[in-house]
Design goal:
Number of domains: 1
Radius of gyration: 28 Å
Number of strands: 24
CATH topology: Neuraminidase
Distance between the termini: 30 Å
Order of helices and strands: HEEEEEEEEEEEEEEEEEEEEEEEE
Strand order of the largest sheet: 1-2-3-4
CATH architecture: 6 Propeller
CATH superfamily: TolB, C-terminal domain
Strand content: 35-45%
Helix content: under 10%
């Protein structure tokens, strides 16, 4: 509502010719027309604000949009497809966004959570980690069963900041950046600390719960005992992002080069290049998705040879 603090105050009677005089056929106590106009405008402004708020509906946020427009979500720490709706989601420093089209990104989370780790369990069912301004600095493991609109604490609140999360083989695998622990939980509440190592992205084999690949300080590392010990993978390309599904291991190098391996990281083939600085990477049903700098999200259906915009600001 427009503030009225800056409204000029009326001058005392006599400061302008005729102001304050009695007019024939009119009471001296009649309300000046300018006061009536301002009051009417104020009432209209209030009604407009009330209607706009009502149209937003419950659970909306100031960052939401149902039409076109550039949603500034910045760095993306996770990207995944909801298997129920088929919608692409990106986890960012200001909450979870759903990509609705080439020019549409809708923030679905009510709170502007700083999501550092993100993974999909099933239709509308997500797990995440990161930071919040409404509670402990590190939120531990949190869960959403309504497509990312609301989140509930699961475990490790205040102690864990998972920068990597993956659901595989009925368990949750996580890398806690707070203490460099690689951890696994079968029930999302009790956790086994399997090793302490400095890693970035990691990916669990879809066919073997003991085989894990991770981006380490000295290059790509492999664990064959579920993350309890790690060995350097020889002759692997320099990688920064990592994902793994039944089509193979997929990686993106810091320079944007896309590589794949069909034998779990033994042999590698260069497949293409993402068209920008890569932030996050995922594969779903043989389709590749990458979040790039500049709030751009791209996809590839030919193994990374070519890419099309899934979302790009105008």
């Amino acid at each position: 509502m427009q503030s009225m603090n800056g409204t000029p105050q009326p001058k005392r009677p006599g400061s302008r010719p005729g102001f304050g005089r009695k007019t024939q056929g009119r009471s001296a106590l009649a309300t000046p027309a300018w006061i009536i106009i301002i009051a009417t405008l104020a009432v209209l402004a209030v009604l407009t604000a009330v209607v706009a708020f009502a149209l937003r509906g419950p659970g909306s946020s100031n960052s939401d949009t149902t039409g076109t427009g550039h949603q500034e979500f910045g760095h993306v720490h996770g990207i995944a497809v909801d298997p129920g709706s088929g919608a692409l989601h990106v986890a960012t420093h200001v909450g979870l966004f759903r990509i609705g089209g080439p020019r549409t990104a809708v923030r679905v989370s009510r709170d502007d959570l700083d999501l550092m780790g993100f993974t999909v369990v099933g239709p509308g069912h997500f797990l995440a980690s990161g930071h919040s301004t409404h509670g402990p600095a590190n939120v531990g493991l949190i869960e959403s069963t309504d497509g990312g609109v609301t989140w509930q604490e699961k475990s490790l609140s205040g102690t864990a900041d998972f920068h990597g999360l993956q659901v595989a083989h009925g368990s949750v695998y996580g890398y806690n950046s707070a203490d460099a622990a690689f951890m696994v939980s079968a029930d999302q509440r009790d956790w086994e600390h399997r090793s302490r190592t400095a890693i970035g992205a990691f990916a669990v084999s879809p066919t073997d719960d003991g085989t894990v690949l991770a981006v380490g300080r000295d290059g790509l590392q492999r664990s064959t005992d579920g993350g309890r010990s790690w060995q350097l993978v020889p002759d692997a390309p320099a990688v920064g992002l990592l994902t793994w599904d039944n089509t193979g291991v997929w990686t993106v190098a810091p320079d944007g080069a896309v590589w794949s391996s069909s034998d779990g990281g033994g042999q590698w083939q260069r497949r293409g290049e993402v068209p920008g600085e890569p932030h996050s990477f995922a594969v779903q049903n043989s389709a590749l998705f990458a979040a790039l700098a500049g709030d751009r999200v791209v996809g590839s259906t030919d193994g990374g040879a070519t890419w099309t915009d899934r979302y790009a600001p105008e």
